[in-house]
């Protein structure tokens, strides 16, 4: 049974830790293991209890615990979770809760569906000034669609006889 608990320990140790060798588990993943395996029930064992036990079993300046320290932590949490049982029975009860469990990814942000994107990028539904930026096929006009181009011909704006000067002098 300890081997199944060890496999669960390794699965949680590498969860979300790309640099982890699965030999040691961080406090974050230890808390996740306790929560996902229903060791932390919110009444007898709370997240505070889990953090305190983790700090108690780890070395002074370490940030992780190995499997042996993990077993000590589970023994302490087991006594809190299964009151009235001796430490070995409590440990076996905790290991039974851990059997076959994997890190859960519920509540993780999913990618959005395409429906909203299609609606927002349909240029045929654009109105006002945004409509001017695209031609009938939906292709962007580029700079002509974004800003009014100035007439640099030298004539005053609104002058009707633009381009007729050379024709009059000949």
Tally of distinct domains? 2
The CATH architecture category of the largest domain equals Orthogonal Bundle
Write the CATH fold name of the largest domain. Answer: Recoverin, domain 1
Count of extended strands: 2
What spatial form do the alpha-carbon principal axes imply?
Answer: rod-shaped
What top-tier CATH class of the largest domain fits best?
Answer: Mainly Alpha
Compute the CA-based radius of gyration.
34 Å
Count of runs of 4 or more consecutive helical residues: 9
Biased composition (Basic and acidic residues): 129-149
Biased composition (Low complexity): 105-117
Subcellular location: Cytoplasm, Cytosol; Cell projection, Cilium, Flagellum
GO cellular component, one term: sperm flagellum
Keywords, separated by commas or semicolons:
cilium, two-stranded antiparallel ribbon, differentiation, EF-hand-dom_pair, flagellum, Recoverin, domain 1, spermatogenesis, 9 helices, 2 domains, 170 residues, mainly alpha
Strands, helices and their partners?
Blueprint: H1 2-14, E1 24-26, H2 27-36, H3 47-57, E2 64-66, H4 67-81, H5 87-98, H6 115-120, H7 128-131, H8 143-146, H9 165-169
Antiparallel strand pairs: 1-2
Helix pairs in contact: 1-2, 2-3, 3-4, 4-5
InterPro entries: EF-hand-dom_pair (IPR011992), TPP/p25 (IPR008907)
Main location: cytoplasm
Protein name: Tubulin polymerization-promoting protein family member 2
């Amino acid at each position: 049974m300890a081997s199944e608990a060890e496999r669960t320990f390794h699965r949680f140790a590498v969860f979300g830790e790309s640099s982890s060798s699965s030999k040691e588990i961080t406090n974050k993943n230890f808390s996740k293991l306790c929560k996902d395996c229903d060791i932390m029930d919110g009444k007898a064992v709370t997240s505070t209890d889990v953090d305190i036990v983790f700090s108690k079993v780890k070395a002074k300046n370490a940030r992780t615990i190995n499997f042996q320290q993990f077993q000590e932590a589970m023994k302490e949490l087991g006594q809190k979770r299964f009151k009235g049982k001796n430490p070995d029975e409590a440990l076996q009860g905790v290991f039974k809760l851990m059997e076959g469990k994997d890190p859960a990814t519920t509540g993780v942000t999913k990618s959005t569906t395409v429906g909203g994107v299609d609606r927002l990028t349909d240029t045929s539904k654009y109105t006002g000034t945004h409509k001017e930026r695209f031609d009938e096929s939906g292709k962007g006009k580029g700079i002509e669609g974004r800003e009014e181009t100035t007439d640099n011909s030298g004539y005053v704006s609104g002058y009707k006889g633009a381009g007729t000067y050379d024709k009059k002098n000949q």
